[in-house]
Amino acid sequence: MRVRKEPRGGVTVISLDGRLDSETAPQVQQDLQALLPEEGLVVLDLSRTLYMSSAGLRVLLLTYRQARHGTVRLALTGLSPEVRAIMEATGFLGFFTVVESVEQGVEALTV
């Protein structure tokens, strides 16, 4: 799993590339903690996340809590139909602004 950070006009875009499961979740959580600013706008791009287990959902929840602890507005993009369905069934979807693309995420957060 690769975690990358890229600034886009005042918004931090963090991309996850690979599988987010029990094997990769601890390192991804550590990476996200380091990359998530204490304040600002963040789009978490999951369009290249090939698989997400319950451990991955926990990483998203912890990231949400970290964002709320500071003053970070967070949007998710690129959810696969499977991940979206799981997040909806568990109530996680309601925690996030969910958009279809990074560009829509940037727009949603900057309006």
UniProtKB/TrEMBL annotation:
Q: Name one GO molecular function term.
A: anti-sigma factor antagonist activity
Source domain of life is: Bacteria
Q: Which InterPro entries does the protein's record reference? A: Anti-sigma_ant, STAS_dom, STAS_dom_sf
Pfam families given for it? STAS
Q: Where is the STAS domain?
A: 1-109
| Gene3D superfamilies referenced in this protein's UniProt entry, alphabetically | STAS domain (3.30.750.24)
Q: Which residues form a coiled coil?
A: none
Q: Which family does it belong to?
A: Belongs to the anti-sigma-factor antagonist family.
Q: What is this protein called?
A: Anti-sigma factor antagonist
Q: What is the lineage of its organism?
A: Bacteria, Bacillati, Actinomycetota, Actinomycetes, Streptosporangiales
